Amino acid sequence: MKSFALTGIVVTALAALTTVSAQGLGDPSAGTKPANMITPPGPVVNSAAYVAPATTKYDYADALHKSFLFYWAQRSGKLPYQRLAWRGDSFVGAKGKYGEDLSGGWFEAANTMKWGGPFGFTAAQLAWNVVEFGPAMKAVNEYNEGINWVRIGAEYLLNTYTNDGTTERLMGLFGDSAVRGPTGGAVDVDFGYFGPPEEYLAGVPFGQPPNAYYCEGSATVNRGCSDIAGDYAAALAAASVALRPIDPVFADRCVAMAKNIYNFGNKYKGTYDTVANFPDQAWNNYREWYKSYGVNDEIAYASAWLHIATKEEIYYTNAQAALALVDGFSEYSWADKAIAAAILLNKAKPDAATQATIKTFFASWLPGGSRKRTPRGLVYGEKWGSLRYAANIAYIALAHAKSLAATASDAPLMTQLQTFAVQQINYMLGDCGRSWVVGFGENYPKSPYHKSSYNSYIDYPLRAQSQGVVGDDFLNSATPNRFILYGALVGGPEDTDEYVDNRKDYVYTEVTQDYNAAFTGALAGLVDFYGPTNFKPASDCGLDLGWTHPNATQATKPVYKAGDCYHTCDACTANATTTPGSSPTAGGDATSAGAAGTPDAAAGAPADAQNSAPGSAVVNNLGVLIPLAIGGLAAAVI
């Protein structure tokens, strides 16, 4: 999450309150620095003199495995199997106003919100990761895990657009962060809940179930949100490119829906930032947390991906036209995708003007540019989510460097971009004297701002207490999170490298969907840069996924096939590995039904299981045998 200069109401549930006040929670540069911050022990560096190590310093394959694992902690809906003991089914049956299934996808951060724009950005980035660095993922046995998350994001987004012949609607926000109360004040529903998502629908404060909020257009109504539409269209078009080698039929569905949503965004031009069109308190809080800065970068990004997906010239033309209208190229984030659109267009059709724009952009981020750096080498975008900005630039640096590799005259820039990416990702993995990735490396964060890894449905000591009491404990207790949130990239340090590892100071310790999105791709990019043969595939072997906890439900613990080297400590066997592009089996990249080219079954079992008698068993397309049970997840056994 990223907040900007909040005016008027401010969500203060993050400070253990459930009302909204005007005390100014603040933008990334606001607020006072905590007194108990610690400077990591790593050396001060001269970034201009930094040279990437000739051999890999960190196990990027292991970090990649864990970064994907973070998204399992965020997943919403019915699980195909329970990889983490402390996360189960949640929001099953959640629907929109028009009956659309909104149970799937993943949650934004510590909360259970699904803000449209950031979700679309994350889904598009996860797809781009596969498109750009899929071969590196395959080499370290992570390809189908990447495909899995592309599919999950796409399936959720396919349900967001409806057209009844009279009115077109795009669901742009699911969940309630601050709902205006009857007295004229506002109570925060989602942010005021500090329990596990599995119990949200039953235990949500104020008895307010999550709502869906829409952009819409008709002959008489124009409540357009071209920004959200652009994010969704980009994500679905990118997903179609990533998934086409696996499932061309599903890829066609994605690109068809991408076109529908893209056309909706162009037909009903507008932004959710227009208060008159979106006066609801829920939209107001969307604007406070994720302000829109215009629609041209989203239109350009969606157009670029649709051009890549369809090869239709109109999208290339539209992308260039939209880029000509953007107000500069400053960063790459959920808020600004213009530079990503330029990089994609240059890959499709290299041209001197676009290349000059890209080169100028990177010059500001590379050593000697205008961007601030911390003493230990982190390029510093903004205070809130500082690591996210560096990871995002590292990713696009590696992606653009690939397009330069064949041109000798571009070799110096290619080397600069690759060196930059190595330095930034190595900073995150430990070069500054600590790791910023939960469960990876030395001195990693133990108290990230993440609710379900602290208050899980299997370990929720204050379940019977009010949410005010639960929230106060969550924020102020010195108890580390009870479960390891593997792979989560925390917000990051001050511009002095200082950090504080507690949940109260969420500007530094928060984790979100978009923090990990490009970070995941950058890790795959560094596997590619150093050569996949220098890395061994990682697995869940030795990870504490919560199954030894006394409250873990052993009946739902998966039992994987022999030779599954992805989830277990087994050595890979010939029939338990995955041929790139094929349907996964247990072991290999086995991660989800969706990865095998069929929809992620809503009931957690394949379609042919739906008519099976209770108590029988079927093999899902993970190669995991699932006994069918009535209610909840059955044990996955072999």
- Poorly predicted runs are 2-30, 575-638
Number of helices: 16
Number of domains: 2
| CATH architecture call of the largest domain | Alpha/alpha barrel
Radius of gyration of CA atoms, rounded to a whole number: 23 Å
What is the 3D form?
Answer: globular
DSSP, total strands:
13
CATH class of the largest domain: Mainly Alpha
- What's the N-to-C terminus distance? 41 Å
Q: Give average pLDDT, whole number.
A: 86
Q: Provide the CATH topology of the largest domain.
A: Glycosyltransferase
Into which percentage range does the β-strand content fall? 5-15%
Order of helices and strands: EEHEHHEEEEHEEHHHHHHHEEHHHHHEE
Q: Please, could you describe this protein's structure?
A:
It is built from 16 helices and 13 strands. Mean pLDDT is 86; it is low at 2-30 and 575-638. The protein has 2 domains: 10-70 and 92-203 and 211-534, Glycosyltransferase (Alpha/alpha barrel), CATH 1.50.10; 545-638, no CATH class. The chain is mainly α. The protein has helices spanning 60-74, 116-139, 143-157, 200-203, 226-243, 248-267, 281-289, 296-310, 313-323, 338-348, 352-365, 386-404, 411-431, 467-476, 506-509, 513-530, and strands at residues 10-11, 20-21, 114-115, 161-163, 168-174, 179-180, 186-187, 212-217, 222-223, 372-373, 379-380, 617-619, 625-627. The protein is globular and about 65 Å long.
